[in-house]
Amino acid sequence: MASAGEPAYFAKARQAGHPVVKDLPKFDLDAYIANYRGKTRFDRLLLIGITSPLLAPEALRNAVAEAKEGRDMGRYDAALSVIRDLNPGDPLAIPDLSWKDKISKQVKAESDRLETELKGYKNNLIKESIRMGHDDLGQHFHRIGDLINSVKAYGRMRDYCTTPSHVVIMNLRLISVSIDQGNWLAVQTNVQKLRSPGQQFAEAQRLTAKLSAAMGLALLASGNYKGAAQEFIDADPRMVQARLDDPADEEAYNEVMTPNDVAVYGGLCALASMDRIELQKYVLDNSKFRSYLELEPHIRRAIAFFVSSKYSSCLSILESYQADYLLDIYLQPHLSELYFQIRSKAIQQYFIPFSCVTMVALAAAFDADEQTIEHELTSMIKRGNLDARIDLVDRVLLAKTVDPRTKVHEHALKMAKAYERTAHLRILRMEMLNTGLEVVEKAKAGAGSAAFGNLGEEHLYGSSSSNQFFGENAGRSLRSGVRG
Predict the structure, then answer these.
(1) Interval 178-193: pLDDT, tens
(2) pLDDT by residue (tens digit) across 210-250?
(3) Which of these, 101, 39, 44, lies nearest to 70 by C-alpha position?
(4) What is the largest CA-CA distance in the chain?
(5) What is the rounded CA–CA span in Å between residue 124 and residue 41?
(6) 484 vs 462: CA distance, rounded Å
(7) Model-level pTM?
(8) Taking the mean position of all CA atoms in its chain, how far away is CA 87?
(9) d(CA 351, CA 311)
(10) Hey, which residues does 357 pair with through a beta bridge?
């Protein structure tokens, strides 16, 4: 239901199922966006503009300014479209036609120049020049938002890569474009190529933090939270020392994410997918990831509270930062599922020592009303995350009890049946061997007359004495063996 005074744009977005954040986040917008560079700045500003009614005017104004600093007119049009929907009378909603005309001419001239140069390089048959020509063309297409042609240009570099560093550059370019495309399978593929045991690239060793971040992001986007957590917590801490304001710093990866994002993504994925022992061993005691957690101390506190079984304190910290995480371009689609997984694990751990718990006690322990707790418990039971049942009359959660004596009896009967079957088969085989009967496989039996010509009749059917014994006694022996 729309809040009082909420703009019509956000009311429609809420009805369509799009998240709308009515609370102010804990970060300052200018300081937050200053940590990023490249296309992710615009993407993050636009997401904030369509999600937060309080920050929308400032975020969209900055998004328009960011778009006009580049040459991607598609992004400029997207920002103007949102402004028109939000406030048709805003002066920013009027397109700058002179700027668009100027940029169109510049883009066309640059495209023609790069393609002409590439043709010249191909005529000269200089592999390094051809590779650089494709690289320049791919970067140009990436800047103007033509991601499909950018991928094609980078892909054509492969035949002209003569050194390992060229292969590393090509794969990094493809990873960057694939992230902008949302093609997470391509991201994983290109990261694995640089990690391939058969091809150890010395240049790639310096980029382990970036590769871990990219792979973690791809796994997060694919819903593999355990794999994403392992990638983020294993990220090399060298990214922490990077200077985010220096584009020449090779350790920085703020065209995609910052070290703070690594801490948040890794911490939330770990909380959602690891138990308390794993959290202590692989997260809190991890010297690599500790450098990232120091940048986001509230994530470290939340994990420490979960490990200490202080679930209410852990969940309250996460709830206080929910507005911030809903404004994150990569976390927003998965935040509700991550929070559900974390709360589910907390409820499971809380319920283990009890045979029954009242709804009132659960609501008090997890700082929620009874209706919310009942809905969460129902979802957990349906998913198979909680082996219990709900008594709606007495408002009690009951654990499913298993009678140990019945369980032992079932196990004993199962073992007895298995022993009986094994003994029967062994007796049957002994009687067959005693009578000289040999079982021939169908494949061997149908191998042709040549095969039969090499086998004696005694070998196939037993000796005459065995046949006599088999004819007289086999039926009685086999029957007695079966009865035994």
Answers:
(1) 999 999 999 999 999 8
(2) 999 999 999 999 999 999 999 999 998 988 888 877 777 77
(3) 39
(4) 110
(5) 40
(6) 25
(7) 0.78
(8) 37
(9) 12
(10) 397
